[in-house]
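Q: Second attempt. The first request was missing the SMILES, so the protein and fe (ii) ion are both included now.
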Amino acid sequence: MPKVLAKEQVEHFKEKGWVKVEQAYPREEALKVQDFLWNELLGRHGIKRDDASTWTQPVVRLGDYWDPVTDGCNTDRLTGAIEDLLGEGRWQLGQTKHKAMWGGFIINFGPEVPGGWHYDGSHFRHYLDSWEQGLLLVCLFSDVRKGGSGTLVAEGSHHIVAKMLEKHPEGLGLGEAIRECNKHPWLAELVKAHEASESIAGASLQDRKAYLAPFMNKAYEDPEGYSLRVVETTGGPGDIVICHPFLYHAPSDNELGVPRFMCNRVAPTMERMQLNRDNPADYSVVEQMIRSSLGLQDSDACTWTRVDS
Ligand SMILES: O=C(O)CCC(=O)C(=O)O
Ligand SMILES: [Fe+2]
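A: Got both inputs this time. The predicted holo structure:
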């Protein structure tokens, strides 16, 4: 039984590969972290909170922190939501309440934010049962309204990555994995349309964003039985968007001029994902999803095994 997520939220995650959890940590704790980050921006980059003329970079990355300022964000609700998807006791930082790692922090001042479609994990070799990412946590420390640089997610794309990794038991580096996935017809179109939008000389923000409309307004039905669609995520301080570790996503331009504070955090598991458990009830939601991308029912054995290089 999930502890924090409602049944509908688990179903949403299973179907689409992402789910929003409101107030995973309290708004006021998130705003304390935002204050801390403004201070860091000032000290490291000379960026002033009360002087927009210093907000000259579209995006500033502050990296990872092990700082007590995030302690109030290490809530039981956050751990519960993550463990509802990864399995109880299986998230490495689930019980760490002091100086847990929070990062990498990304602050968008906009308007044009560089970066395209990808899934995460440049720090490890990718296998179907990799433990290093666990989940992608998009954690918010400011109000992110529509048009305010919310992360774009490609619903359903976790199936594409899982099916590609199934074919590569020897594992792949992230760059190669992304090149393979981008051969999928829908992703190929999306990536091509994004690149074309970047190269329109003198384009307005609206022109640049126009490429997204066909991918947002209409789902693509993959012949393998799943749907693909782009969605812009939004939320407020304390909210998180939890994504499947294989979910494609992209940054979006900031039309509102309100700086967006988020961190893009990993949730590594204690052990590799286990795709063959004796008791099917022991599969985590993420494990079930990877198995289901391969077309396996709960009682089916999974014949995939990684080939360590
Ligand atoms: O800025 C965002 O919303 C996403 C950033 C991202 O995907 C990344 O840095 O890997
Ligand atoms: Fe990313």
